[in-house]
Amino acid sequence: MSISTKGKRSPTASPCIGTCSTVLGDEVCRGCGRTFDEVLNWHNFTDNEKKAVNFRLKMEGKLKF
Q1: Under 8 Å between Cβ of 18 and 29
Q2: If DSSP codes are grouped into helix, strand and coil, which group holds residue 53?
């Protein structure tokens, strides 16, 4: 997770909270709300793709920080 010196979360930061359930076979992580494909490919996503996922998670109430 990326936090600025002002305590704000970066809009491109991974929403991972360290309790991944996709490794258990879940299609959607119970910890962060991302799909298996989003978790797997996060490091290949553009900044705009990361922002879109984070925005979706925020709108769904799944972004926990």
Answers
A1: no
A2: helix
Tens-level pLDDT at each residue, the chain (65 residues): 455 456 678 999 999 999 989 889 999 999 999 999 999 999 999 999 999 999 999 999 988 66
| Contacts of residue 17, Cβ cutoff 8 Å, sequence gap at least 6 | 31, 32, 64, 65
> What single DSSP character describes residue 7?
S
Number of residues that make up the chain:
65
Distance of CA 58 to the CA centre of its chain: 10
What pTM did the predictor assign?
0.83
**What does the block give as tokens for 46?**
């553009």
Strand partners, 3: 9
Q: What is the DSSP letter of 17?
A: -
Contact between 22 and 30 (Cβ < 8 Å): no
